[in-house]
Amino acid sequence: MLDEMTVCVIRLRIKDRHAKWLSERAREVNTVWNYCNDLSRKVWEREWRFLSGFDFWPFLRGVTKEGLGLPVQTVQEVAEQYAVKRRTARKTRLAWRKSGGARRSLGWLPFKVRTIRYAHGQVCYAGQWLSLWDSYGLGGFELRAGSISEDARGRWYLNVTVNEPDFVGPLPMPSMSDCVGIDLGLKELAALSSGEKVAAQRFYRDLEPALATAQRAGKKARTRAIHAKVANRRRDHLQKLSTTLVRQHRGIFVGNVNAQALARTHLAKSVLDAGWSALRTMLQYKCDRAGVWFREVNEAFSTQTCSSCGSMPPGRPKGIAGLGMREWTCSACGSVHDRDVNAARNILAVGHGRLAGGITVLQGV
Predict the structure, then answer these.
(1) Distant-in-sequence, close-in-space partners of 47: CB < 8 Å, separation ≥ 6
(2) Helix boundaries (H) for 90-129
(3) Distance of CA 273 to the CA centre of its chain
(4) How many helices (H) and strands (E) does the chain have?
């Protein structure tokens, strides 16, 4: 069952004593990026064409022998990444990468396959051995392409792609009792079809007063530390929740609530603090590793449909006006529903029906 491989990215922190050396290499990456930026603009003005990553190489050949302390593979990767980002942005010129000042660019050192090697808790890059906090045991993986990046607090991380064993072939389809439907929300982060609820945490709002104080005092380092603490607390909570759900069920179905659209409304702070998209991403890759079925389900009308009889009675919660209706009674069958648990049960029914090849569809969809 473990014949094929899945590609994943491992992120490990590099020890702080290497920060100065990495910053010097990052400035050299910025030099290469800015050279490609300027060259691309000049070629466009003269010849009305854009350079690809391959086209840059004749102009960059030999730069590593002229005092640039970067591997050849990194120079090539910078040029290729520049060409891709310029094409994606549809611009003749991208922003310059700044090595100094208040708005300097965060350090970034891309590399290709076989650019780094690992031994005894260290990786060798550009002839320099970098010590890691290696919680994964990189010695058991084949290291591929990746990057070394800096965060806002000046801490450096190794982001490397590795192959990981994956399950092969269709696993037995789980029964309804082994599956769970999840309705994502703001008051409760997740309501489960089993009736359980996971309360939404206030990661950002709890630290918002301290953040405001630090910003008013102009303490930038303190501000960055608070933002990092918020992100770390949220990530830790979602990792633990997603791991628990994957271990307890053989099938997981989640509503496809549009977090990006809601983040443009007055609910933006709460939506971003909840981390719906991050939770779904974690569930996706953890289910793939564990052999658990995972599907995102269209949750339209899941709140308004009775999970017992499938009808949409007149007294159901509808639209914005019905958001305050947390419980309701179905006039068709008399069932009393918790709004969010009812939605989770409908999501479970739709997800399992489609998994089984059925045509389970909620009314109105």
Answers:
(1) none
(2) none
(3) 14
(4) 9, 14
**Backbone phi, then psi, for 103, in 5-degree steps?**
-115, 40
**Taking the chain (365 residues) in consecutive chunks of 10 residues, what is each chunk's mean pLDDT?**
67 96 96 95 92 92 82 95 95 93 92 92 95 90 94 94 68 85 92 93 94 95 94 95 95 92 89 93 90 90 84 75 74 84 91 68 53
Whether the CB-CB separation of 187 and 200 falls below 8 Å is answered with yes
Phi, psi of 351 (to 5 degrees): -65, -45
Cα–Cα distance, 301 to 310 (Å, whole number): 11
Output DSSP code: residue 319.
T
User: Please, how many CA atoms are within 13 Å of residue 317, restricted to the half-sphere of its CB?
Assistant: 21
How far, in Å, CA of 149 to CA of 169, rounded?
37
Identify the CA nearest to 198 among candidates 207, 211, 206, 189: 189
For the whole model, what pTM was predicted? 0.80
| Rounded CA separation 363/216 (Å) | 52
Q: Which residue, among 41, 113, 47, 116, has the nearest Cα to 82 in the 3D structure?
A: 41
What domains does the chain contain, in order, with CATH numbers?
4-166 (no CATH), 176-201+229-355 (3.30.420)
What type of residue is 163?
Answer: N
